[in-house]
Amino acid sequence: MHEILDLTDSNLLRPSRIGTKKPMPHGMVYGNKPDTSNIVPANRVEAFMDKKVRISSTVRGKVIRVTKPKGGWFEVDAGNGKIIAAHFRDYNVTTPVELKGKIVLIEGVAQKQFEASGKAKTGIKIDPKRRLTFEVKGLMVEK
Question: What is the pTM assigned to this prediction?
């Protein structure tokens, strides 16, 4: 016995969603919703920290790229060629790669990390380079 193939099946007529980007709507939240009462621009975070090594704050900045979606690892433009390396405190948060280029609000803990380059062990030449990291509790897409 032969089977008859029904070509009017609605699944065959549906457009494919492969390769289409999901829109990132304004106000989309990952993790906890950030507190918007005291926002610091990403290019002013280091100056806002002054001599402190760690601060809790909400930062507004542009996502340069999502480095690892699982765990929410991404980079934010801090201006003047500097980058804030950010990740979620809760590893179960997954950030989409479509976050790239979006303006976001992130709330959490900013921390300065000092890396020594050069010949630190010999004491000849040490050129300390500062790096800013951010442990995110919540992220909201702004634009």
Answer: 0.71
Token pair, residue 42, equals: 């990403």
pLDDT at 113 over 90: no
Distance in angstroms (rounded) separating the CA atoms of residues 68 and 131: 19
Counting residues of the chain whose pLDDT is more than 90, the rounded percentage is 48
Instruction: Give CA–CA dist 58/41, Å, rounded.
Output: 9
* Cβ-proximal residues to 90 (8 Å cutoff; 6+ apart), any chain: 31, 72, 137
Decide if 34 contacts 86 (C-beta within 8 A).
no
Compare 6 and 79 and report the one with higher pLDDT.
79
Q: For 17-80, give the DSSP string.
A: -TTPPPP--TT-EEESPPP-SSEEEGGGHHHHHTT-SEEEEEEEEEEEEEEETBTTEEEEE-ST
Token output for 75 = 């980079």
Two tokens at 121?
């062990």
